[in-house]
Structure prediction request, 556 residues.
Amino acid sequence: MKLLLPFHLQKVGSGFPSPATDYIEDDIDLNVHLIKNIPSTFLIRVQGKSMNKVGIHNDDILVVDRSLNPKNCSTVVVSVNEELIVKTFIKEKNQSFLTSESKEIKDKINLTENPEIVIWGVVTYVIHAL
Amino acid sequence: MLYNNNKIALVDCNSFYVSCERLFNPSINKKPVVVLSSNDGCVISRSTEAKTLGIKMSEPYFKVKKIVKENDVRIFSTNFALYGDISRRVMKTLRQFSPQMEIYSIDEAFLNLSSVKNENLLEHAYKIRKTILKWTGIPTSIGVASTKTLSKAANYIAKKEKSGVIDLINSKKTDELLSEIKINDVWGVGKQLTKFYIKNGINTAYDLKKTHNGWVKKNTNVFGSRTAMELRGFPCISLEPQEEKRKNCCVSRSFGRKVTKLEELSEAVTTHCLNAAEKIRLNKQTVKKITVFIRTSPFQIGNNYYANSKDVDLPIRTNDSIMLIKQALIALKSIYKKGYRYQKTGIIFSNLKDSDIYKKNLFSEINNDEKRIKLMQAIDHTNTRYGRNSLSIAQAGLKKKWNVKKQHASKIDTSCFNFLPTVKIA
Prediction:
């Protein structure tokens, strides 16, 4: 049988032991907090323009979870015109749309009318360097 | 008829490398796409569209160049960093459907579904397929049956079905389906066996199934009869959830161009040794024998062909890169001949065993050993943290002019911060 010895964080010395040892935890692991579903989550870098209202800027890194279904106002990655792009997902009554920050109407896409457009994943976090 | 309660699913990714390339590149979604082996040599993955054009598996690139040009086929060199990461994601997703799983290759896994009720099997398989597609973006085919060989056969048929799923356990047409599978497409039947079976009138999986077992046993070997038994629904090959540790480790590459100098060959051999040594250290193994081989192109005419290899029996077991490189280079020097244009070199570490590097030999220099173990650990840590070959050995060369051609590789690596896929804002 294996005998497991207790693991001490502090070396046993002759001095007064650090009173903090009882409170020491592991370092914060951002993965645990930012990635809920490991196999379905991808990091994707933004290239080009920004989405100021949403708070996404050029060169930011998006945390994208493919396993989630978008809710109203979700930021999503979609495949449109043979390209992966970031859009806002809008649900109105029985219809869903993709919008962007530009005011042009042609940029609003009705998903119900364009079944070939696929939602690639839902953006859950933005990593932005200041 | 059911002889047992075994339920095994074989999940296989469709055109896996192509599917990985498509994941971040929707512009090639409906186009013919092929992925070429290292040095852009042979076709190793094809999209359905490319298959329809008549591009065959393993065909040399130069043979299909015409079809490629005429049909705007998209060509990719391998990007194993990407394929490896996507494979890990697929396997992780699969694991939640069954704790008993055998990863069979980069794009295939056997799952034990014995706990699923017969009437729910099909639905369960659809759910697996749907989840893998949604989470990882990779389309799969699933074959469910009572043995591994039958699940492979079911998968073979599932690949051709739009639904992508075939369940032989609830099927009444098993024999009909088996007669659609040619004998050489049966799992475990190799080239030699195929020739032998065809000579004896066994042309399909169904033919083999109904052949008398005594005959198969007498005329082939234990593996041959296992395959036949499994086709009849008797499980003979069990699921192996634990990956068996490898007994050999081979690293070899064709050069991007022909190489004549010993210095360049040495760089390549050193690089291969570093890669292999890292692999065996990761598996906590040591090596006792190294083989180094070199050869020119087999298509060289006349006296220009040369191939040779040399085995080195090491005095003590080791996984120390520096020591292994030293030995490999001595071996290389002994077989190198001037005046040849070399196409390929490689090394094989054989007789691998679990490491007992602390066991000392009469001749080992004790102090050095421990320092070297720490050095190797430091190298491995650095390379895991900062990427492959961040810390190398100068002998491996910096420019590596001989290195493989990868003209069409996508530069995406989903597991490396510097090469993440990109997305635009519109």
Q: What stands out?
A: The longest strand of chain B covers residues 285-296.
